[in-house]
From TrEMBL:
<feature type="transmembrane region" description="Helical">
    <location>
        <begin position="249"/>
        <end position="265"/>
    </location>
</feature>
<keyword id="KW-0594">Phospholipid biosynthesis</keyword>
<feature type="transmembrane region" description="Helical">
    <location>
        <begin position="195"/>
        <end position="213"/>
    </location>
</feature>
<keyword id="KW-1133">Transmembrane helix</keyword>
<dbReference type="InterPro" id="IPR000462">
    <property type="entry name" value="CDP-OH_P_trans"/>
</dbReference>
<feature type="transmembrane region" description="Helical">
    <location>
        <begin position="128"/>
        <end position="149"/>
    </location>
</feature>
<keyword id="KW-0808">Transferase</keyword>
<feature type="domain" description="CDP-alcohol phosphatidyltransferase C-terminal">
    <location>
        <begin position="227"/>
        <end position="261"/>
    </location>
</feature>
<dbReference type="InterPro" id="IPR050324">
    <property type="entry name" value="CDP-alcohol_PTase-I"/>
</dbReference>
<keyword id="KW-0444">Lipid biosynthesis</keyword>
<keyword id="KW-0812">Transmembrane</keyword>
<keyword id="KW-1208">Phospholipid metabolism</keyword>
<feature type="transmembrane region" description="Helical">
    <location>
        <begin position="41"/>
        <end position="60"/>
    </location>
</feature>
<dbReference type="InterPro" id="IPR012616">
    <property type="entry name" value="CDP-OH_P_trans_C"/>
</dbReference>
<keyword id="KW-0443">Lipid metabolism</keyword>
<dbReference type="InterPro" id="IPR043130">
    <property type="entry name" value="CDP-OH_PTrfase_TM_dom"/>
</dbReference>
<dbReference type="GO" id="GO:0003882">
    <property type="term" value="F:CDP-diacylglycerol-serine O-phosphatidyltransferase activity"/>
</dbReference>
Length: 290
């Protein structure tokens, strides 16, 4: 009499919902029993709030309220920066959260800035201006798709060295608004010129999808001797952001661009050192085998 093989009952454990921590952190899916708690859903709620903030910027731009439009996207960037940290703190990271976060980023930092800048400046150059706006939105979406495709890939030289690949989407949106910051403070129409704006937006779009190594804020480790100075500098920068927001944002963006060559040099040093260590290890292994 043949015995029936025992069927193994599959256990379907619901994954906790929450956005990825950040581009320089691991967005691993955490599984656990029981239903979803409000604490586990909090990161997703913040991601949805960031999406609403970014899209509301489009509404302000349609009404011609440019400052509110830009600030809405900036607020979306702040919310995007904290939702992942909260997800990691609450152990509520998941693949669902990573996908939701990327979709929200694509709309808040790709579509919204492109439409805002088109309504602010690029509509005076309808064809080429719209092409530049499309290029920015598409490159933002491509960058986020590339990041999602590499979540589970172990071989990521930039990430393992503490760097990012290309300019992150929120940073790209902030850089795209740099001409507006300068125009608001100086009143020079040069910064609102559609040709200048189109060229600037195209450059930022290329930086977002480039393979160059860029600095990661999470990998910065200030030395113990200067930590108090760093804290004081951050506090003063926050005060400056409240008093002179456009000058401060412009300074931050220009400073970020100025540090990009330093990041490339630093990554090149790390890459060469790793190559030397691998060569030495290979030589030692071949010598031992002999």
């Amino acid at each position: 009499m043949s015995r029936r093989p025992k069927l193994r009952r599959a256990s379907f454990l619901p994954a906790r919902i929450g956005p990825k921590a950040a581009e320089d952190e691991d967005g691993l899916e955490q599984r656990g029993g029981g239903g979803l708690t409000l604490r586990a859903m909090l990161p997703n709620a913040i991601t949805a709030a960031a999406l609403c903030s970014g899209l509301t910027g489009i509404r302000f731009a349609i009404d011609g309220e440019w400052s509110y439009a830009i600030l809405a996207v900036v607020l979306a960037g702040v919310l995007d920066g904290i939702d992942g940290r909260i997800a990691r703190l609450l152990n509520a990271q998941s693949r669902f959260g990573a996908e939701l976060d990327s979709l929200a980023d694509s709309l808040s930092f790709g579509v919204a800035p492109a439409l805002i800048l088109f309504l602010w400046s690029l509509n005076d150059l309808p064809r080429f201006g719209w092409f530049a706006a499309l290029a920015f939105a598409i490159c933002c979406a491509l960058r986020l798709a590339r990041f999602n495709a590499r979540i589970d890939v172990d071989d990521q030289p930039h990430k393992s060295a503490g760097f990012l690949t290309g300019v992150p989407a929120p940073v790209g949106a902030g850089l795209a608004f740099t001409p507006f910051y300068l125009w608001s403070e100086t009143g020079l129409e040069f910064f609102r010129n559609p040709v200048v704006m189109a060229l600037w937006l195209s450059v930022i779009a290329v930086l977002m999808i480039s393979n160059m190594a860029t600095m990661s804020w999470g990998s910065l480790r200030p030395r113990k001797a200067i930590r108090l100075w760093v804290i004081a500098f951050v506090a003063l920068a926050f005060a400056a952001l409240l008093l002179e927001p456009w000058w401060t944002l412009a300074t931050i963006c220009i400073g970020y661009l100025a540090l990009m060559p330093y990041g490339l040099v630093k990554y090149g040093r790390i890459k060469r050192r790793r190559g030397q260590e691998q060569a030495a290890a290979a030589a030692a292994q071949s010598g031992g085998a002999a």
